[in-house]
Each structure stands twice: as structure tokens, then as C-alpha cells.
Amino acid sequence: MQSAVDGYVESVESGRTVAGRWIYAAMRRWRLDMQRTDIVMRWDEVGQIAEHFSRLTLVGDDSGRTFELHPWQLWVIANLWGWRYVEDGRRRTKLAILQVARGNGKTTLAAGLALWDLLLGDGRRVHVVANNEEQAAICLDTARTMIRRQARPDVTVLWDRIERKTEDCLMTGLPALERALDGLNPSFWIADEAAEFKGRFLTKLLTTGSKRKESLGLIITTPGANPENIYGEMVANAESILRNEIEDDSVFAALYGIDPADTPDDEAAWPKANPAMQHGQPDRVSLRRSWNTMKRSPLGRSEFLRYHCARTDENTGGWLDMQLWPGNETPDLDQLRGKPAWIGLDLSKSLDMTALMLAIPLEDGRVALKGHYWWPAAEVAQRELDYRMPVRTWAAERRITLTPGREIDYESVRATLNRLRDEYDLRAVGYDSWGSKYLVEVCEADGIPMTAYRMGIGTFGPGCQLFQNLWAGGKLVIGDDPIMRRACSEAMAQQDRNGNIRPVKSRKNCIIDPLVSAVIAIHCWGGKRASCYESE
Fold first, then answer.
1. Which range marks the domain in which residue 497 is found?
2. Predicted TM-score of the model (pTM)
3. Domain ends where: 211, 246, 278?
4. Residue 530: pLDDT above 70?
5. Which residues on adjacent β-strands are paired with residue 225?
6. pLDDT digits (tens, 9 = 90+) for 440-457
7. Residues 265, 157 share a domain
8. Are residues 91 and 219 in the same domain?
9. Contacts of 209 by beta carbon, 8 Å cutoff, 6+ apart
């Protein structure tokens, strides 16, 4: 047992086993932990868990075959259950994150661990939590099949749970809803595909085992499409632990995935996200066939990166290549005061965003963009859940303005336009011709050069093409703007029969308003000419 784990650690450190940077960091942490005197590795307990797995049989394609733990799985289990404090014998790990690509058996492993905890003693409570009950049932059904084959008289297998009534033990599957956590006191919980949980649900889940002396939570997931949710925060915290920037003995993280410098077509990097690949699960031929199919579209490449390479990719929409995001340099607006500028304005309806984008051509041929955003404060908590965006956090950081009520306070937009007119040589403010007539009238009275912009694809298409050319050519300067970044990542391209394109939402609850306002601003500027829109 110990030799298998030590062999895996040594093979990763020596490079014989291909691994990503966070697994290397976890191995370094393992080595340092082995030198500590306040904790001890209980190899006997790890061996007992391995023996428990040897009595289980697999499901699916390998149905009926004995569950043989691979060295990487033994290493994970050792980190979950093996470390104990010398002083009181309590388990060190309270929260574990296993982020790994699809097809590596993480759900089957979790089902086996759930059964181990269920059978460990009296009063056990094991819960599998997922976005919906159907997803939670996958892990639960795997455990049900495994334990049913053992025909244990002390275990009752029902359609929605597993029980040991005499010992007061229970295993269930639950949806990721806050009300489902009321009254729970788990000895072990599993959060399946937790990267997709909405809102702050994970925060409440972390508190459910506080009544027990020992409670363990295991997150099993592929990376999320949204790095700004609570799971993204937990991963960032885990990375800080692995970098030795913070100390937290209670957290263990095995973050398998390809590195930032790796590309999805590099087969040599695939094992970084697929530790079971050397054992044929998944096999290289299947991954190669998946890549050949999925590489043909931006969205397909994004999904391959996320699900098979275990790396977050922002190309959820598919129009703009987010690897070209122009965020390395932030425009120095103070140095640009008095320069010619154009503005795009995308006005909102109730409970929707209003976006204003300032475009300033630079002497080197690039264009600096600076966004200003407004959102109604009414029902903002629910909108955060629906859109999976930290709107209130952005407001606290002064990235977006929350206005009272269900509609945008256009006086706030008007004040911003007047300020920008005073600071820059404002040539035109392009606005959706279907927008607020009141705002247009008062702004014109203020001396702001308002220009109606027709949003039909015949007009909007050339603006989108110009924006796309600047994006692909590295001619945009945006900097640190997570709201604009989100809009760019979630926009899909809609094309008419003449080849004109326009951005549309990739899903119902997402934002593209900042991008739309940027296209209007860029089109009103029009490139080297005064305005390609005005020349039409």
C-alpha cells in the first residue's frame, strides 16, 4: 500500500508520470507533510479502505470486475483518510477537491468511498449532492449496485437510499438547493459536478458537518465554465495553499488538468488531466477521436478543454476566441484626456443591464475601450443566481452601478455622458434607435452628439466585422474588465445569408450588452475614416 503511493509520488516528481503543475505542487506538499511531527499517516487505515474496495465490483462497461485501486486513487484516499493529528488522533482533512477530466472514474471512486463511510460505524449520514436529483442518483445508483452484489443482511437497498437501520446509518442523493441542507449532519458528503452549482450553495454545504467531531466533504468535478462562482473561489484558495501562500491543513486539493502553456491537440499533455489514462480509462484512441470531432468549432474546442483536458475555457459562446482577450494592458485614461472619442450605448429594459463603452483610438493604431455599466438593484440576488454573476461584488468594486428599483436610472447615465464629454473630444454617441427618447432628448439638450444607430444586421454586421478584425489583430486595449470579458465569452455569432454576423446570447440568462455597446462605439469611429457608419 505505502509502496504504491510512494511509487506514484516519486514517478510524478521524476517526470516518469506526466502531471500538471498543481499535482507537482501537491506532491511537494506531501513530501513536506511527511517530515512533520504533528501529523502522522495511518497506513493501516488506508489499507483497510483498499481492502474494502477489493470487495466491490465495478459497474458499466467493466461490470462485475473487481475494483482495483490505481496508485493515483490510493494517493487521493491517503490524503483524505490517512492523515491524523498526533495530539488527538482526529482526521486532518475536512474538505477535498478532486478536479479531473471526464472518464477517469471519479464518480465510481466516490461511490466506493461513500459506502466505506456508511459501513464505518453507527450513526453515519452520507449524502450525494448534485445540481438535480437525477445527477445525484448516478453516484447513488453506482453505490446501490455495488452494495447489492454483496448481499449484506445488515444493509437495505431502496430506490432512493441505502440504509443500515439497526446502526442508524443512511445514504441519500440530494439536489443542490439550500432547503435540502436544512437539518443535515453528514459524516461524509459528496458534491458531484460542484463547479456548476448556483449561487453560494457550496458555502452552506461546508457548514453542515460542524456538529460532528469528524466530517469530510469531497468535491468531484470537472472545471466550471464560470471561474467567478464560489467553486472558482475555492479552487483559487486551494491553489494558494499549494503555492504555500496560505496554510490550511483542513483542505486537500488534487487539481488534475493540462497547464496554461499546453494546447488541447497535444496528446502528450492529455495524461495531466487524465491520471487513469495509463490504465486505459479513458483510452487515447477515444480521446483522439473526440478531439478530431470537437476541434472544428470554437465551442467544441472549449468543451474539449473543459471536459477532457480539465482546464477552464471561456469560449462558452463561440464567436470570439477568448485566448486573444486583450487584458494584459489597462488603458491610461488620464493620459488620454482631450483625445477624440466615440461612445456606444446599449440601453436596457426593466431588470436588464445598460452598457456604455468609450472608444479612444491610440496613435499606434490600437483602440482603448472603457466600459461603464448599470443594473437595477431590484431582485439582484435572484439575478445573480440566474446569470451566475457576482453582481454585488462588482458593485462593491465600483465596476458596475446598481440603481434603485426595476429600471435603470437614466439620470445616472446622463451624468456619465456629460462627464465624458467634458473629459474627451467626444465626436459621437451611438445609441440603439429603439432606446429611450427621453434620455436622447435631454442629452441633446446638454450638447452631447447623439447619433441613432440602427441595430439591423445589415448595419450592425459591418460593425461586428470591424470589431472582430480588431480583436483578432490584437488592436484592442481593454484591461481588467470582468464584465466585458464575460460578455465576450458568452456571445454567439448569428449569420445571415449575405455573411453578415451579429452577436447573440449563447443562453437565456447571460449578458452581451457590454459587447454590443463596444461594437457600436467601434463602428461609429469606423477605423481610419471618421465614421464608416456615417458614410453609409
1. 323-525
2. 0.70
3. 278
4. no
5. none
6. 999 999 999 999 988 887
7. yes
8. yes
9. 94, 185, 186, 187, 189, 215, 216, 217
